[in-house]
Amino acid sequence: MATPSAAVPQASSIPKRRFGGDEVAYGITLLFSLSILAITVLLVYELWQHSALTRDKFGLGFIGSKLWNPVTSQFGALPFIYGTVITSILALLISVPLGVGAAIYLSELATSKVSNTLTFLVELLAAVPSVIFGLLAIFTVIPLMRDYIEPAIQSIAGFLPLFSGRIGAGAGYLTAGAILAIMTFPYIISVSREALMAVPREQREAALALGATKWESTWDAVLPFARLGIMGSVFLALARALGETMAVTMVIGNDRVIHTSLFAPGYTIAAVIANEFAEAEGNMHLSALIELGLVLFALTMVINGLAQLLIIVTTKKGSAKG
Amino acid sequence: MTSRNSRRNTVNNVMLTLCGICVFVTVSTLFVILAYLIYNGGKSVNLDFFTKLPQPPGQLGGGMANAIVGSAEIVLLATMIGLPIGFFAGIYLAEFGNKTMQFLIRYTADLLNGIPSIVIGIFAWTVIVVRTHHFSALAGGVALSLMLIPITARSTEQFLLEVPRSLREGALALGANKWRTIATVIVPAAGKGIMTGMILGVARISGETAPLLFTSLNNQFWSTGLSEPTASLPVMIYNDAIAPYDDLHRQAWAAGLVLLGLVLLANIAARMVISRGTSLPR
Amino acid sequence: MKKSVVMGLTVLPALFAVSAMGAQTINAAGATFPAPIYQKWFAEYKTAHPDVQINYQPIGSSGGIRQLIEGTIDFGASDMPVADDQLKQMKVRTLHFPTVMGAIVLTYNVPGVTGALKLTPEAISGIYLGTIAKWDDAAIKGANPGVKLPSKEIEVVHRSDGSGTTFVFADYLSKISADWKSKAGTNASPSWPVGLGGKGNDGVAGLVKQTPNSIGYVELFYALQNKMAFADIKNAAGKFVTPSLEGVTAAAAGSKDLPEDFRGSINNAPGAASYPISTFTYLLIPTEYKDATKAAAIKGFLTWMLTTGQKDAQGLSYAPLPKNLVAKVQKQLAQIK
């Protein structure tokens, strides 16, 4: 679709408006953009369609039911929702303090060069494929958990129902939570650091001028401003933890029952889909698994949405960075 | 110094040291991972690994040649589908479109980006595997492309928006119309950033396992085409890691080292090119 | 970017060409129980017939049945006979071809215990029901005087995927324990009262190998290959039998006649030498193929399997089919078009 290609157009050769490159470019780019819309709509549609059997049979009770038995065609999502939520919460409990602490150091204490290098290294962690985390977890973290960490926890806090179960093989909620924590470090650190760096310099200077120590200035003057951004990072990390499949499947023990003890084996939505999908016995089973996929999709959509909202609000507020 | 002041100072020192420890712990996990992979996998990454096929269980030796080629095939397919779509969508987001369309497309792209990869796998299964009655490299490639599209679109948009207005206005002042401006001025100016965004996206999808589990499945041999089950590195690692044979564990470590090495190299190279901002998919 | 697109377009056909070198590819999937011997067979057959490449993915018996119903594979494999309602769902009438017989062993990892433990049916069902929780429980101690059993909790391992091996094991448990029959029953994916799930026979073997004080059920080959200990089990005749090919063959001989379509169980068979947890394993072959060369290739493989292939069985700790059975199975071949 050629338009006359004069380098410097003379007045007489300025082309007349006709169906030209601009419309085509607009059309092509619009087409590809709409395809993103189309793909997403199709995805939701397919998930909805293929889960019709169990949606009709169980309705909302699917979410609250504890029993998952492919043989009797009883399907309930609760054990998996429980496992997904518990492991994600565990992950956050570990990674948020560590991550925010690290972010504080990187934004307030480290020189810019050190901070950039270290942040770069942490962000590389996000590039490590999930299956490699799983590989490491099977051979290093599980024995560590089983032989050292879980017994230690049990000897200190064993009176709590959370820690009073059998330690078993080392595979379970706690181990999965620990691995997820490592996988979510980069998200917490990177976004929190940016949120902290976006807080105007005047805040810190004002606090220091009033005689605050560096820590006090950070805790009382800077952190509150960065709160929303940090929360955004937490939601981002949560969304990733909820959907994480491979590393969790390899360490969670694959037990379809809800256990109170954190040392016990469990299951997450993503893990059960990965394990049972290729061999789902019967259309009911398949529909149940796909409905689980739908539940996971809805969950991550909501959490991601919140994360984006919080991050946008912070970056708008912190535009005094210069 | 009053005792309250000294207490405040102590708190200050303790908390800041703790923060330093946090950094140490988090950064060192990367090195611990690398160390384990190099230690366990290093001795097994040899010529056999790259050239031989996997052996039946119980027989020693063999390699992952088919998985390496298979991964390359699937990722290449995903790239050929996903990059153009993402690239042009990114251009739309940055250059054309009204506010509502932009918001809609951005929101949908971010939504697609945030979908767990196993759900993408389910989708590819219903749309391709069930309809074609085949596990195939094609299904795997499509699944991965679905992940690549939003990453590419958003990063392309981001770098296009960073091109200074003066460049655009200069081109328009010279009489170039919009698509020429985009094609000959803006895109090349943002070129480095766009390329690195693409490289990072491709690196990310090449390590994904979940979408391949029930799309490209796996293969003991060379796959004979795009519509056949195909071996891939991540799936091989998974299968070998949960198997009981020490020999397969050894192979899993080696494959892990190779895969991680490639992914990290791509990331480091990309970041060296654009040394600003964050490379994390948001 | 243009350059890389062009490069990609030229590389892809090249890759295509490399990988499309001539072979007739047949896709199969299913049980992990016989995977070691199937993989060996397919590799051997390919060496003998380079134009026939059979790609077998061990995804579990339920997986094999499911994918066969979906039509994504050319034939399937399962330790458990396919149920009537599932057979109905198959697009084409499907036959069961017994291939070998094998033993399911109880393998364990108890530090300090080196020899073979003797387990009674009551002990096994108690362990899997969760009523027997420790290794030094009376039910286990009683059969193993002189063995030092630790007072540790038993880590029970079972399958996380739908498994023919599980089906056979659960069938055995249902036969020897009314409690199990009512609580969980005979099927490929029962509601396990206790335990961890491993994926595939190798997943279970892997878990037991890595976990102290654990016990799991796997096909004999997996335990032998990994030098893991396994138990002698008391059979229906009251004798403790070490898992072996002879025990499996005796079980097959002791069972009543198999039905015409070969879907039968040889668990808890009578006979002093019978190993109580034995099973056939089957290839599930559709009777019609759109592609005539594919049908011919599969028939060729099956013929080979029933004759030359059987020789490989013993080396990998599977029992070859009894000769009279082979004759009956060969008659089925004619039905494949």
The largest pleated sheet of chain C is described as: 9 strands, mixed
Ends apart, CA distance between termini of chain C = 51 Å
Overall, the morphology of chain C is elongated
Which band does the percent of strand residues of chain B land in?
under 5%
Largest sheet of chain B: none
Our Rg estimate of chain B from Cα atoms comes to 23 Å
Mean pLDDT across the residues of chain C is: 86
Q: How many alpha or pi helices of chain B?
A: 11
Number of helices of chain C: 14
Textual characterization of the structure:
With 322 residues, chain A is an all-alpha fold. In chain A, 71% of the residues lie in helices and 0% in strands. In chain A, α2 crosses α12, α5 packs antiparallel against α7 and α8 runs antiparallel to α9. Chain B is mostly helical and 282 residues long. Chain B is 75% helix and 0% strand. Chain B is globular, with a radius of gyration of 23 Å. Chain C is an alpha/beta fold. Chain C is 42% helix and 20% strand. Chain C is built from 14 helices and 12 strands. In chain C, strands 1, 2, 3, 4, 6, 7, 8, 9 and 12 form a 9-stranded mixed β-sheet that branches. A 3-stranded mixed β-sheet of chain C has the order 5-10-11. In chain C, β10 and β11 form a beta hairpin. Chains in contact: A-B, A-C, B-C. Chains A and B meet through α1, α4, α5, α6 and α7 of A and α1, α3, α4, α5 and α6 of B.
Please write out the topology:
The complex is a heterotrimer of chains A (about 325), B (about 280) and C (about 325).
Chain A: H1 21-50, H2 52-58, H3 61-64, H4 78-109, H5 112-125, H6 130-157, H7 173-197, H8 201-209, H9 214-243, H10 246-251, H11 269-276, H12 282-317
Helix pairs in contact in A: 1-12, 2-12, 4-7, 4-9, 5-7, 7-9, 8-9, 9-12, 11-12
Chain B: H1 3-41, H2 47-51, H3 65-95, H4 99-114, H5 117-132, H6 137-161, H7 165-173, H8 178-206, H9 210-213, H10 233-242, H11 246-273
Helix pairs in contact in B: 1-11, 3-6, 3-8, 4-6, 5-6, 6-8, 7-8, 8-11, 10-11
Chain C: H1 2-19, E1 24-30, H2 35-48, E2 52-58, H3 61-70, E3 75-78, H4 84-89, E4 94-109, E5 118-119, H5 121-129, H6 138-143, E6 155-159, H7 164-176, H8 178-183, E7 196-198, H9 200-210, E8 214-219, H10 220-225, E9 229-230, E10 232-234, E11 240-241, H11 245-254, E12 278-286, H12 292-309, H13 311-315, H14 323-332
Parallel strand pairs in C: 1-2, 1-3, 5-10, 6-7, 6-8
Antiparallel strand pairs in C: 3-12, 4-8, 4-9, 4-12, 10-11
